[in-house]
Request: fold
Amino acid sequence: MGTAAGSAFDTETLRRAIEGNTGNNLLSLYTDDAEIRIVDHDNQPSHPTVLHGRGQIAELLDDIYSRDMTHKLDQCVVQGDRAAYSESCEYADGTRVLAESMVTLRDGKIADQLIIQAWDE
Reply:
């Protein structure tokens, strides 16, 4: 991991932010006008959840990090202004979540993110 050549996006910072106990550090990795699209069982590809800007992203992160669960960055690849990473999460009751993200970077921050996630039912 580390910083990608020609980019200020630091994957070790991403790891610490994801695996931390608050969404604040993760929120700092997004541009002010970032967009997140989320595709999952409830929000299918033709109608994803779409979040615009750090305010809406903060609400999502506050919700996620208020839950009794752990988060782990499994893999991350950065190439130029693109990155992809895998995240695994587990609730206290053992329910697991897997999320895959593809991101576009601008000035070392996440400007656009597509998250595809699945969880135990």
Remarks:
- The first helix runs from residue 11 to 19.
- Confidence is low (pLDDT under 50) at residues 1-7.
- Residues 39 and 47 are 8 Å apart (CA to CA).
- DSSP finds three helices and six strands in the chain.
